[in-house]
Amino acid sequence: MSLAIFDLDNTLLSIDSDHAWGEFLLEQGAVDPESYSEANERFMADYNAGTLDIKAFLEVALKPLAENSPEQLAAWHQQFMAAKIEPHILPKAEELLARHRTRGDVLLIITATNRFITGPIAERLGVDHLIAVEPEVHEGCYTGGITGIPSYQEGKVKRLEQWLEDQDITLEDAWFYSDSHNDLPLLEKIEHPIAVDPDPILRRVAEERQWRIMSLRD
Fold first, then answer.
1. Which residue spans adopt a coiled-coil conformation according to this UniProt entry (predicted)?
2. Which domain holds residue 201?
3. Among this protein's residues, is 7 annotated catalytic?
């Protein structure tokens, strides 16, 4: 039994779910159209460049969770899943998950996107284990803050190490599928690092190190 780890955005999905959630909120009129749209695009560009200030991003990204009721958020998320996520679940990604499931591997999604957005997506994909940014909750409502280490860049390594301490699993013979050079700190620690439809930086590194490169979109 091995651990099969998957990035979510632009790996199992053909979009970035965090960015798509921002677009969805704009469509609902739930956020200021000018400032939020500018921030959503700027943070996406920073992420792609590997220069994202994760704390500054989360201050903006989690604010709408604190400004709306759990009931409203749940209703929006249901619409979001149908409109923005379901059309972008890659059939080959589901086949890949199924192959690892058949092998008896433990499936884990690890993502820099927060659990509010990604929890239902992981459930839809049939993946029981999820490491994500953890929004802080007080008395049943989101505060706009986070708990623990953000699972971004080196933070993914730290969060995975914490998770492994609580599981009867090791990284021996583990797999990690990702599209992003932001995941290089974790890819470098895994026996089977696999670049999935990689960004240009990750593609170059994967080619230099002779890592497997694959596509779930062809």
1. none
2. 3-13+89-214
3. yes
98: tokens are: 């199924």
Which of 70, 85, 100 is where one domain is finished? 85
Q: What is the CATH number of the domain that holds 24?
A: 1.20.1440.100
CA 162, distance to chain mean position in Å, is 18
Q: How many CA atoms lie within 13 A of 75 on its CB side?
A: 6
pLDDT tens by residue, the chain, 218 residues: 899 999 999 999 999 999 999 999 999 999 999 999 999 999 999 999 999 999 999 999 999 999 999 999 999 999 999 999 999 999 999 999 999 999 999 999 999 999 999 999 999 999 999 999 999 999 999 999 999 999 999 999 999 999 999 998 899 999 999 999 999 999 999 999 999 999 999 999 999 999 999 999 97
Same domain, 114 and 181: yes
Active site residue 9: yes
Q: Which one from 7, 18, 105, 179 is the annotated catalytic residue?
A: 7
